[in-house]
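User: I'm putting together a teaching handout on how sequence relates to shape, and I'd like one worked example. Could you take L-cystine uptake protein TcyP from Isobaculum melis, show the sequence you're using, and then write out its predicted structure as tokens right after it?

Assistant: Happy to. First the sequence, then the structure tokens directly below it.
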Amino acid sequence: MTVEVIKMLVVLVIFSALIFGFIKMQQKHVKFSTRVFIALGVGIVFGAVLQLIFGSQNAVVTDSIAWIGIVGDGYVKLLQMLIMPLVFVSIVGAFTKLKISEKLGKISLNVLVTLLATTAIAAFIGILMVWVFNLDGASFTEGAKETARIAELATRQETVASMSIQDQILSFLPTNIFADLSGTRPTSTIAVVIFSAFVGMAYLGVNKKDPKTGEFFATLIDTLYKIVMRIVTLVLRLTPFGILALMTRVTATSDFQAILNLGKFVMASYAALILVLLMHAGILMLNKINPIQFFKKSFPVLSFAFTSRSSAGALPMNIETQTQALGVDEGTANFSASFGLSIGQNGCAGVYPAMLAMIVAPTMGINVFDPLYVLTVIAVVTISSFGVAGVGGGATFASLIVLGALNLPVTIVGLVISVEPLIDMGRTAVNVSDSMLAGVVTSKRIGELDEDKLHDANAVIESSL
């Protein structure tokens, strides 16, 4: 047995001990959000120590991370497994929970308008931060990781670029729902959303003519919903372990010099995301809803989204927070949370692609202060925000669509790979905030918001995690 193998085994033993520590914390009923944040911090420290001792390219680190990655990547795959079942049961369940079917149009329209309008504003905020921080794509450096990433993205963009806008719109529609339920296409999520909406509308029609059959179907969906949510609970209990493994890998293998070089981009990104959250607060105030109360009650789900980097994984807590803590009616909560997984994500499909489009534009001789170009970017970003999946890779897909539509190179997406995980945490929290905002605002507008529950400090989600 070589020295390197012994060192690798020591690293894995330490990692296993950390896992055991989180198991003991769970047994002692330490709060879920506390465990997740501790896992985030421990993962960062453990990974940084590994890099400090061995270096990011050392065989001990690469071999150890390959094994540790089973925990992290396994957790991500389980989250991805949940997307389609969650979307289907949540949207169909929203139809079965509608007290008055006549409100369906109002709910759908208000949710969609809120999601898309805030995405357009988020895109402008991203553009504004590029101007304020004077970001220039020509100053971004390229290393070995970036070169490999750029080559991969170029291949992916060829597929996207070969599609016209009409083809892209048609790609949202499901042709084989079983294929889309297995997530075989980049737009599978929006396709499942559309199919689920058809199923829901069919239910309303059947329920009107044959209430007995409608009641049976509603009971069936409710049962399926509870089973899926139970599966979700089982997966989410693994979050501290997944976060520990993912953050260990990120910090152990990151090029810290590259991160420092992109420090201004990170600051600009988070400045934009904070401004988007302030925009959410402004919309709440316009609708006479206390933003402090909203964010205070939303903190558990937003913190989970931040650490897990998964809007889809946050879906159950999203719906639970809206209904139990914010006073949103069940139908609206299911609609807004589900639609928010694939439509109008403010962080991944709003701020991020808009910033990249503005950063790379000067390298193509484009005047980024041209009002027409700015409006074009905002319009393309908003339209392209349809179909962005709520688990890792959604922001990249949205960026490829936007950059392709604007005839810009995808190189910039690869150049920021070093800081992608760091920014993605903030983007995901903003995505979830927007879907919850859409739910609260819509429920208020249709007269279904429970104001007493919203202002009740004791009305909080009771997590079983």
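A couple of points you could highlight for students: The chain has 21 helices and no strands. The mean pLDDT is 84.
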